[in-house]
Amino acid sequence: MSFSFEIAATTGAARAGIFSTPHGTVETPAFMPVGTLATVKALDPDDLVQMGASMILGNAYHLHLRPGDEIVREMGGLHRFMRWDRPILTDSGGFQVFSLAQLRTVTEEGVEFQSHIDGSRRFFTPEIVMQIERNLGADVIMQFDHVIAGQSDETSARDASERSIRWLNRCLDEVERLEQTRPLEDSPRVVVAPDTSRNHPRLPLPASRLPRQALFPIVQGGIHAHLRREAAEAIRSMNDWPGFGVGGLSVGEEKDAMYEMIDVVDDALPKTHPRYLMGVGFPDDLIEAIRRGIDLFDCVAPTRMGRNGAVFTRDGRLNIKRTEYRTDPRPLDTECDCSACTRFTRAYIRHLFVSDEILGLRLLSLHNVHFLLSLARNARQAILNGDLDNWSRDWLARYRSASPLAV
Amino acid sequence: MSFSFEIAATTGAARAGIFSTPHGTVETPAFMPVGTLATVKALDPDDLVQMGASMILGNAYHLHLRPGDEIVREMGGLHRFMRWDRPILTDSGGFQVFSLAQLRTVTEEGVEFQSHIDGSRRFFTPEIVMQIERNLGADVIMQFDHVIAGQSDETSARDASERSIRWLNRCLDEVERLEQTRPLEDSPRVVVAPDTSRNHPRLPLPASRLPRQALFPIVQGGIHAHLRREAAEAIRSMNDWPGFGVGGLSVGEEKDAMYEMIDVVDDALPKTHPRYLMGVGFPDDLIEAIRRGIDLFDCVAPTRMGRNGAVFTRDGRLNIKRTEYRTDPRPLDTECDCSACTRFTRAYIRHLFVSDEILGLRLLSLHNVHFLLSLARNARQAILNGDLDNWSRDWLARYRSASPLAV
Question: What percentage of chain A exceeds 70 in pLDDT?
Fold first, then answer.
């Protein structure tokens, strides 16, 4: 089948799983590097393969504006366009419409907004966004949702969550319509096989037009536990989804509130399906969320922070621009086996960074992405070993005990 | 021996040679990618190894200002600092002092100038520059010279050329003093062996302090043939040099004048030693100069142009930013085997470029540097095959017949 999720081991709520897609499998928990504009910033696809990345992200909002989803389709879809033959997930652009775009007007129909690139007027509806994600052709596509600030009051949170659920229904209808009328191009590694994981009750699909994209709903509800539960309930009653997104966290709320919401969602969603915590990717959050039953993560932090000189290490964060690293002969992280740490000193990377050399951006991005990929892999191994509690306690203690001076 | 030059085949003035250094050999003719600040801009050392680069450049002026040559020395020298265990050549900074720095005052003693980074006052003398290049520890170090504009009149050209020769004498004295007082650190691939190629008459060196750096003089003289001849003569009478730089070309003069000067210098320099044409690296200039007896080249063009969207191809230059490449499924150059051309379409690279994605800079730099490395390799093969005349005629005809629209 095209999509499936198998659980190999559990420790409390945490799971070591295998998520199968038409472009291969993802061993979970997994961190997914973010390739917003069809490239993980400052990295080469070969770097990502070398680091063992499996699924990466693209973004519907950004790729619709540049180069245009129709162009990506014409070039054979996102996999071929960016030369990534492993799984891809596209975010719907809901977050970007509500954070990047200007002068937006939200109605039940959709969102009118101005492009942050050229100010042109655009209109996103659930249907239009599904068409965009169809053109991009990722394995997993996220629903178009109404995203609000992390500490929004209950009225706003309920309004956005309920609208997101109505939009989900329209997304699902549109995906089905597109499957009928606009089949995806074949791509070399796409295996067309009956999709039993997405046992949709409404419409038996003809054999030649089986869905090869998995639509993930997004559970919203802000920091209000009962809204999260209601959203999960409503979403589950609509369809047998191949997996679930958890949205609207790590957007300004307290960490404790985020962890509490993850607990609530873990309870409210089926244990049998993958859960993707959107936009979360700091090392300690990754571990806390894995312990609470999350399988998939993405975050721009490792590359964005890398471009600002910030480096993840087992002993907390450091900033490579500091003068103290001027002649430091150590690697960024003394225990890391990434291709930056096995080759270069802090002194050299600091020099590159201070001199605005592109290699500096590349090496820090490479290290930070590798750090999170490797962290999720190690957590998975700890689950398989039945040792997650000890492993995560030790890891977090060391990470959090770092001198504040080093941050 | 540490440095030697063997000639395997010739066609007219052109030579296929092997230049040996303490960090390995360079098959000539060769293009040397420029790593001004201890990094070839936008590339990883692994990329350069994959492309078959042998010798690369660093720059004394830039590395003195950032991170400081004393720091590079403390970090084990340039080879270790930037993880390049093949040969390195450092330019003296003469060109930069006379092109980048501000408010310079030239006296017989040296040049006082303001750093282009922070405006700080600096003073370069031949002795100071040799100390900087000693700290950097490259295999080949260039003399400190007085560089002038390409079309300078004879009086200025003579003045600068004669001063450069007096400075060369001071460079040589200082290099000898440094060899006595400040031996280079050992580095893993440095082989300490008697240097018979640089049979210097003045001072027998003790076995433990053999020179492991080759000082190259620079033949100046603008576009005045007799000045070039006089300079070559004066330089040859001073020492048995391990090789020769040819400077002050490709700095604004007519192409024909440049080619004529190369012919003059070819005649005036010993056939037995490598000749390095400084700062020249456009594809047609490379071929014209190889035909005239040049062995080594460097140029920032492939990376600098790459960062502006310009691409070398066998059919002339193209600019990837043009709208016509928006859905072009072809590689940058249809016959190129670099890792950009074997993976990505023009459409994708254009998208990266238009979106200011770092991968775009990397791929264009990678392609352009590979293009020149490969061009020099192919010229070498043509010399070995005895087929240089046909090969170069065909290559230049195709390159120059490109439609002006494509440039």
Answer: 91
Out of A327, A339, A355, whose CB is closest to B37? A355
- Residue of chain B with shortest Cα separation from A343: B83
Measured distance CA(A291)–CA(A275) in Å, rounded: 13
Residue of chain B with shortest Cα separation from A65: B355
Hey, which bits of A125-228 come out as E strands? 140-142, 214-216, 218-219
Count CB-CB contacts under 10 A for residue B136: 24
Residue A298's φ and ψ, nearest 5 degrees, are: -145, 155
Catalytic annotation on A315?
no
Catalytic residue from among A195, A295, A298, A333: A298
ipTM of the complex: 0.93
CA distance to A333, B57, B66, B297, B308, per residue, from B37 (Å)? 24, 9, 7, 18, 19
Q: Which of B47, B69, B91, B285 is catalytic?
A: B91
Cβ atoms of A351 and B67 closer than 8 Å: yes
Between CA B330 and CA B349 the distance in angstroms is: 11
CB atoms within 10 A of CB B403: 8
Cα–Cα dist B157/B227, whole Å? 8
Angle, CA of B122, B126 and B129, to the nearest 5°: 60
The whole-chain average pLDDT of chain B stands at 91
Closest chain A C-alpha to B329 CA, distance in angstroms: 7
Residue range B327-349, pLDDT digits in tens? 999 999 999 999 999 999 999 99
Contact A51, A366 (CB under 8 A): yes
